[in-house]
Design a protein that fits this description.
The complex is a heterodimer. Chain A is mostly helical. Chain A has helices at residues 19-25, 27-30, 35-45, 51-79, 84-89, 93-99, 124-147, 152-188. Chain A is built from 8 helices and no strands. In chain A, helix 1 runs antiparallel to helix 4, helix 4 (51-79) packs antiparallel against helix 8 (152-188) and helix 7 (124-147) runs antiparallel to helix 8. In chain A, 40% of the residues are buried. The model of chain A has no long low-confidence stretch (mean pLDDT 96). Chain B is mainly α. Chain B has one domain (11-90). Chain B contains 2 helices and no strands. Chain B has helices spanning 11-36, 41-65. Chain B is elongated, with a radius of gyration of 16 Å. The chains are: A mainly alpha, B mainly alpha. The A-B interface holds A 3-12, 53, 55-56, 59-60, 63, 69, 72-73, 76-77, 167-168, 171, 174-175, 178 and B 14, 17-18, 20-21, 24-25, 28-29, 31-33, 35-37, 66-71, 73, 87-89.
Chain lengths: 189, 91
């Protein structure tokens, strides 16, 4: 069960209408290393991971949905006042004819999200190493996105998200150690 | 149809919301830390203290700006307040 809370995890502000930046942000919405992929990856892996690390997968997976909502809010705010001409100039004409200004789970190049971006191997270490890699790739993407804009309000939200990737990566690395310790015990007893 | 009976979003709305976002951020962070450090007593104490501290802020926010949560986790005035704007992406 999930309960919705009517607030963002962190304030999202933008200082101008910028559909081009909105298009780039879709990488973290429906891209391979984006927030949707992250949330679905962890919440799906948790069913078959050892009990000691279910909590961290459950809670990081849940937080990813809050990040997905922040990205959506950025995209929404950056495009809500855009004219069709502005969308066209930003390279969003193909998006406009299919979706108007609706959000869609696709990456910055317009490729729709697919489950083949994520894995569930049933092997706890294989799954956790994928999760660590996913966080590091997302952290890098956030840095490249920050580099692509001079909007300091938007950068503030993106920097928060970049820092969260670092914390999640750290927690997953600790989960790896927990699994390894547990395996060591079984071997010797 | 747009934003009917929308509670006024004023300066205090943003101030209270940010106060809550700060406490709730610390709670998320402590929660994740405790998931992998369940024996850290100081963090558990801090977690429980912040869980207490958020209650009056939530109450004050909800009295002015409506429920923060659905499915019975907050009371409602008449008419049902939950589906009323603004939603988080609108402010």
């Amino acid at each position: 069960m999930w309960i919705y809370e009517k607030k963002l995890q962190y304030p999202v502000r933008v200082s101008k209408c910028d559909p081009y930046m909105a298009r780039l942000l879709l990488e973290q919405y429906g891209g391979a290393d984006g927030e949707l992929a992250a949330a679905l990856r962890y919440l799906n892996q948790r069913y078959t991971i050892p009990d000691k690390v279910i909590g961290i997968l459950n809670d990081i997976g849940t937080e990813e949905f809050a990040h997905l909502e922040m990205i959506a809010t950025m995209v929404y705010k950056l495009t809500k006042d855009a004219t069709p001409d502005q969308l066209k100039a930003a390279g969003l004409a193909d998006h406009y004819v299919n979706h108007d200004k609706a959000l869609f789970y696709q990456n910055a190049a317009g490729v729709p999200w697919t489950a083949s971006y994520i894995q569930a191997k049933g092997d706890p270490l294989a799954d956790l190493y994928e999760d660590i890699a996913a966080e590091e790739k997302a952290r890098a993407t956030y840095q490249w996105l920050i580099d692509m804009t001079d909007d300091v309000d938007l950068q503030d939200g993106l920097k928060f998200l970049r820092e969260r990737e670092i914390v999640h990566s750290t927690r997953f690395r600790e989960a790896v150690e927990i699994i390894k310790d547990d395996r060591g015990k079984k071997r010797f007893f | 149809m747009e934003n009917q009976s929308k509670p006024a979003v004023d300066q205090r709305y943003y101030e209270l919301l940010e106060k809550l976002q700060m406490i709730d951020f610390a709670l998320v962070e402590l929660n994740l830390f405790l998931d992998t450090h369940p024996d850290d007593l100081k963090s558990i104490e801090q977690y429980n203290r912040l869980a207490q501290e958020r209650i009056p802020i939530v109450r004050e926010f909800q009295e002015s700006y409506g429920p923060l949560m659905h499915f019975g986790h907050a009371y409602s005035k008449f008419p049902f307040e939950w589906p009323q704007a603004p939603w988080p992406w609108q402010v």
